[in-house]
Every structure is written in C-alpha cells, then in structure tokens.
Amino acid sequence: MEKMEKTHGLVQFIGGIGFTFFIALLGLGLSKINGFDRVGPLACSIIIAVVVRQIWDYPEKIRSGIEFSSKKLLRFAIILYGLKLNIAVIFNQGMPLLIRDVVTIIFSIGLTMLIAKWIKADFSLSLLLAVGTGVCGAAAIAAVSPIVKTKEEDTAMGVGIIALTGTVFALLYTVLRPFLPLTNIHYGIWSGVSLHEIAHVALAAAPAGEDGLAIALLAKLGRVFLLVPLCFILMYWMNKKSAKHVNKTKIDFPWFLIGFIAMSLFGSYIIGHSIKIPPSVLVNIGNISTYILTMAMVGLGLNVSFQAMRTKALRPFIAMVITSILLSALTFLSLL
C-alpha cells in the first residue's frame, strides 16, 4: 500500500513538471508567431500560465511538481546561464564599459526604490524590478528572488513586467535608430548599457551592424557579470536586516551562484582552449537553458492572481518605467 502511494505521488510529481513543460511549449510556439516573437518565450509562457491559473486553475495534487519547476529548475537554469558570460572577454575588452555598467546598476536600483518609496509602491516587487532594470532582466530577478525571500507571485510578475517593458523599449530603439546622431559603436553602447535583457539588446542593436551589436552585447555582459557581486551584497544586507529582529531568519547561501561562476569560468577558459565543443552544441545548450528557465517561469506564473497584479503591480511598474526612461535618456546624452 505504501509503495503504491509513493508511486502515485511520483506520478503526480512528474505530472506537475510535465504540466510546466507543456505550457512552456505553448509559450515557445506562441513566441514564434509574428508580433509575439518580439515579446519572447518567457513573457509568452508567463502570460499563458497566469491565464490558466485564473480560468482553469490546476489540480492540487500536481503542486509538488510545479514547485520543483519554479524552485529547483530555476536555480539549474541560472547555473546554465553562466555559459553565456565570457569573463575573459569582459576582462580583456570590456573593462571601460564596466564603469558605465556599475553606474547603471547603482542608478537603476537607487532611483527605482526612491520613487517606489515616494509613491508607496510594494517594496518586494519594486526591488525585483529595480534589479531587473539595472542588471539583466528576468535572469537577475530569478537570481535575487531566493536571496531576498520574495513570493513566487512577485517573481513571476516581475519577470513578466520586465520582459514586456524591455521589448517595447527595444522596438522604440530600432525605430529611432535612423534619426539618432550616434555612431554604430555609440548606439551599441547605448543599447547594451540601458536595455533590460540580453534578448532586448540583441534586438535593438542589430541595425547597428556587427560592430555595434558586438559592443552592445559586451556592455550587456558586463552587467551580467556584476550580478554576482550584487547577489552577495544583497545577501549581506538581508543577513544584517535579519540580525536586527528578535526572530532571526537564516539566509541560505546562494549555492547556485557558485555554479553560475563555475560555468562562466568553464565557458571562458576551458571551452575553445582545452576542450573543443562544436558551436552547434553550445547553441543547443543555450536553447535548453532558456527552455528550462521558461518552465521555471511557468511554475511561478501559476501562482499569480489578477487581483494581486491589480493591487501590487501598478506602482512598482510606474517606478520602473520612470527609471528606465531616465536611464535611457541620460545614457544617450552621455554618448553625444
């Protein structure tokens, strides 16, 4: 009897993971359609997950599998994401851009939280959007959410908002490109320093040609690199904040960041040097990591309620948009 219950529980667990896999597949398919291809699979999948949660909900018995996707797969995806960061290139070519990247992160987080406090926005969601704006969008939000102990629904809302807003900004950049008094290199720096995600930077910088796109991605990767020290700073802040309370909350060490760093070092110094891996294999690994991250986002999206979005998301969204506009404008002016 006990064995049957364990088997039944395992089937339900796998069913929950399969449920997130299926919705992620739908999101991936939706992102291939004209118009939705600008939004990307992450945002498309979260939208579908949120709609499913509101209309049909999901059986309680598969919750364990969904939680596995939203927590364990999320950390695994962040580890694989490390392969996209070439630390060697940043140290050799991108050091001057790192100064801009540091200023971007400090400015984005500081201003977003200042505005959020002023308009009485939800602190947790505002912090996630601030980090997403300053660093690297969804990946940054996914990385810091376990450290700052945010609710899953806040993480999902943050990822959805940052993905959609960043897409709008990237499209505006491409429309404005022919009318801007910037060289291809300066336009690439503007895109890489001020836009939200790597996908948004690639979309916006493509019209600037190969050189413009290369410098844009280099600037963006510098911000991804800075995600690591930022996470440790947040961890220190959370521990210090916890120490002031009688009921102390233990902040777990973000071990997935060690995996992220290890994969970055492996991709930077081992692949192509000691080990030769075909580019097609690396592309497939990148696609797999994106899909796993999409499944994790689905798991998070299945915990979002429209009521929470209406009551919590508007003011943090306003704070993030104001910061994004000012960041874009000031970065642009600094390059003239």
Q: Could you explain how this protein is built, in words?
A:
- With 336 residues, the protein is mostly helical.
- The chain has 15 helices and no strands.
Strand content: under 5%
Q: Which structural class should the secondary elements be placed in?
A: mainly alpha
- Choose one word for the global shape: globular
Q: What is the rounded distance between the termini?
A: 74 Å
In this structure, how is the largest beta sheet organized? none
| Residue runs with pLDDT of under 50 for 5 or more positions | none
Question: Taking all residues together, what is the mean pLDDT?
Answer: 84
Number of helices: 15
Question: Rg, please?
Answer: 20 Å
According to DSSP, the number of beta strands is 0
Order of helices and strands: HHHHHHHHHHHHHHH
Helicity range of the residues? Answer: over 70%
Short overview:
By secondary structure, this protein is mainly α.
Which properties best describe this structure?
77% helix
Write the layout of secondary structure elements.
Layout: H1 2-30, H2 41-55, H3 63-81, H4 87-93, H5 95-118, H6 123-134, H7 137-144, H8 152-176, H9 184-194, H10 198-205, H11 209-225, H12 227-243, H13 255-270, H14 279-301, H15 306-334
Helix pairs in contact: 1-2, 1-3, 1-14, 2-8, 2-14, 3-13, 3-14, 4-11, 5-6, 5-11, 5-15, 6-7, 6-8, 6-15, 7-8, 8-10, 8-14, 8-15, 9-10, 9-11, 9-15, 10-11
